[in-house]
């Protein structure tokens, strides 16, 4: 299937792999929080559309004939907007939904739905490693007296007396994660269920060390006309090679 003009919504490594296969008529869209690639053949646009109505207008004005959502599984707002905007503009909406990680034998996952449940689940622990993105930065002054937090996220932020902020971007290697966990002696890991390999090593190290994982549940995502579990299948459907 050859599309004249694709709007690819990104912000993930998978989206970047798709973007690398697209020619100049196609558009790769980023929120603008992370790195903006400057070596792509396709057009790169940065920043929000102004909700689903703004995106629908963009789709029509730019003559887009397919929307591909390759955003992160926890970026639920942009996915809801994209599904709605595609419907309104009458173009197909495809989505890349990489499979969630599954607990393995011996894993101790404690599933939580929101920040309140998460802090309740963390109450018995002293030294969590947060790998949820920037959300914990908004709660640095609510850390219980018995806890010291280590927060790993993209944003640089000053340490506080009760928290250490590690600004880092994946992928993370097994060796690197082993070294970090050994050095910091975390007693619990806090994670989203992102799926994929880029950030999976922390789960393996938690397993090796017998650490519980407080796992934030995946949000509901809108249904898409076509859903793909991996980049290769999606590129096949577009008839471009990875
Ligand atoms: P979100 O809550 O779903 O989206 C918030 C707003 O950001 C959207 O309403 C939209 O603004 C804008 N936006 C998001 N993605 C965009 C894109 N690809 N192109 C243009 N505008 C976009 O998203 P989020 O959780 O803040 O994540 C932001 C971006 O980071 C996403 O693109 C996602 O793929 C990436 N990311 C997120 C996570 C995560 O854990 N959430 C992890 C890794 C990467 P308007 O309403 O104004 O259009």
UniProtKB/TrEMBL annotation:
Transmembrane feature ranges: none
Keyword annotations: Cobalamin biosynthesis, Oxidoreductase
GO terms, biological process: cobalamin biosynthetic process
Enzyme's top EC category: oxidoreductase
Gene Ontology MF terms: precorrin-6A reductase activity
NCBIfam families to which the protein is assigned, alphabetical: PRK08057.1-2 (NF005968), PRK08057.1-3 (NF005969)
Keyword match Transport: no
Pathway annotation: Cofactor biosynthesis; adenosylcobalamin biosynthesis
Top-level taxon of origin: Bacteria
The protein, known as: Precorrin-6x reductase
EC number: 1.3.1.54
Any Pfam family the entry gives: CbiJ
């Amino acid at each position: 299937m050859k599309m004249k003009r694709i709007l690819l919504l990104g912000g993930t490594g998978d989206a970047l792999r798709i973007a690398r296969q697209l020619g100049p008529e196609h558009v790769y869209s980023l929120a603008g929080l992370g790195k903006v690639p400057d070596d792509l053949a396709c057009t790169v646009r940065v920043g929000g559309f102004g909700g689903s109505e703004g995106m629908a207008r963009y789709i029509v004005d730019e003559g887009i004939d397919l929307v591909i959502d390759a955003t992160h599984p926890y970026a639920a707002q942009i996915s809801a907007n994209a599904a709605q905007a595609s419907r309104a503009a009458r173009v197909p909406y495809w989505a890349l939904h990489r499979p969630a990680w599954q607990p393995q034998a011996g894993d101790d996952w404690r599933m939580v739905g929101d920040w309140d449940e998460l802090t309740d689940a963390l109450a018995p622990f002293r030294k969590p490693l947060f790998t949820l993105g920037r959300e914990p930065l908004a709660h640095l002054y609510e850390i219980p007296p018995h806890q010291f937090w280590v927060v790993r996220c993209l944003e640089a932020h000053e340490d506080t007396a009760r928290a250490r902020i590690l600004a880092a971007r994946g992928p993370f290697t097994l060796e690197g994660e082993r070294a970090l966990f050994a050095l910091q002696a975390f007693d619990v890991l806090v994670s989203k269920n992102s799926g994929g390999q880029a950030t999976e090593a922390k789960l393996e190290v938690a397993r090796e060390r017998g650490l519980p994982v407080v796992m934030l549940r995946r949000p509901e995502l809108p249904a898409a006309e076509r859903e793909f579990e991996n980049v290769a299948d999606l590129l096949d459907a577009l008839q471009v090679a990875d």
